Amino acid sequence: MGVAGFDEEFDVVVVGSGAAGAAAALGAHQAGASVLVVEKCDEATAGGNTRVSGGGWWVNRDPERAQVFLRSLNGAFPVADDVVEAWAAETAENSRWLEDLGADVAMSADYHTEPEYLELEGSDCYAGMDTIAGRMGHSLLHDFLHGALAERGIEIRFETPAVELITDGGTVVGVEVEAADGRRRIGGRGGVVLATGGFQADPGMVRDYLRVEDHVLWGSPASTGDGHRMAQAAGADLWHMDNMMTITGVRGDDGSGYYLALWNAHNYLWVAADGRRFMDEAADPYHGHVRRNGGYELFPQRPFHLIFDEQMRTAGPLSPTPDVLPVGWNLLVNGARWSLDNADEIAKGWIERADSIAELAEIVGVDPSTLGRTVEQYNEACAAGRDDHFGRAPEKLAPVAQAPFYVLEVTPLLGWSNGGPRRDGRARVLDTRGAAIDGLYAAGEISSTYSWRKDGGFHVGDALAFGRVAGRDAAARA
């Protein structure tokens, strides 16, 4: 045994090896600390959502304006000023920091070239999205960061889940892990950084905090709220636990999700359980939000049905191929592929076919006259070039008129949760009285800065920024 009953001891222990964990470990190492990263997954599946994300981070051209933008995005759900200030300053350093580590940083020419929330005050700070080599996805950022750790001799100990924080008089001094040879106590002289991801793969937490009854996963199935529970056991307060991102999804064979992206044609409408339309189906999805009812709302939060016709079916795949959007656990880790003509999904029974709308209503289990009138009214709007019910843009109105007709159940595809242990601008976890818990830090999706809306490249940018902050601060304590 080592000092204070530890099996081994480091200056900083980082839990999780995604963007936040890697940045924390690299930041602590740059500050002269000895670092260990523990990761519950094996090497082939480690890295959380960073492994399967777009792998891009937003380019912050003006930290002062960035503060304004973040406050605009958070709206009625503010975070503390020191968090806003640290976020604005540190996200502006992300590209330079990665270049100094040896990354080939280049701006994406195809994705997030301008802010999604262009109308919000402060959006002029947004200059685009940087990526590794100008390419999105394909685990490029994950692979670079893990390579940077290896080059510096920073160990990632795979298949070593953290199970409990070790405290001494309220101060976090280490972490207990489940190693191959049993439990081990690892000391962290400067502290422990929790970078364990979200809780979207824990159905109980999803129901309790997000009120989503049925969902499929876009990201890592290892995001089960482990760090949240460890932080709470150490006295942590929580913030914005109900914020998240869902997008339109389809449940696959194994319960994993495909992203339903209706980009190839517009011959479709959405109906709820009563067989009626309920919103502008073509409203732009802004990372979990849509413009609706005069403001922004989380969407989708419950399943519904996609109704479409033969024109839509033959226009191309309903879920993007990796050459178009190389992101998501199902595509990048499971190797799943949606057929180019949607025929495989019809054969599997995911998409059901009918020769008439009335027959389709029987499949869906709704009143045929109701669904018939819904489709009729929608087609009338298409003919008139004006959707008086939900304001769908004229250029995105195309009739559902060519038989056969199809129906597909749409299930919320949960990308990430945003809430977790409350932290300050130094990434220190706060207790329920607002005091810092000495030696405990959080960064990344476990404790995202975003209390409401976010823009493109913001999650990775936040993870890199507060990962560095946490690593540096913990190293200074050591």
Automatic annotation (TrEMBL):
Keywords: FAD, Flavoprotein, Oxidoreductase. This is FAD-dependent oxidoreductase. Pfam families: FAD_binding_2. PANTHER family: 3-OXOSTEROID 1-DEHYDROGENASE, FUMARATE REDUCTASE. It comes from Prescottella soli. SUPFAM superfamilies: FAD/NAD(P)-binding domain, Succinate dehydrogenase/fumarate reductase flavoprotein, catalytic domain. Residues 11-452 form the FAD-dependent oxidoreductase 2 FAD-binding domain. The lineage of its organism: Bacteria, Bacillati, Actinomycetota, Actinomycetes, Mycobacteriales. Its cofactor is FAD. InterPro entries: FAD-dep_OxRdtase_2_FAD-bd (IPR003953), FAD-oxidoreductase_2 (IPR050315), FAD/NAD-bd_sf (IPR036188), Succ_DH/fumarate_Rdtase_cat_sf (IPR027477).
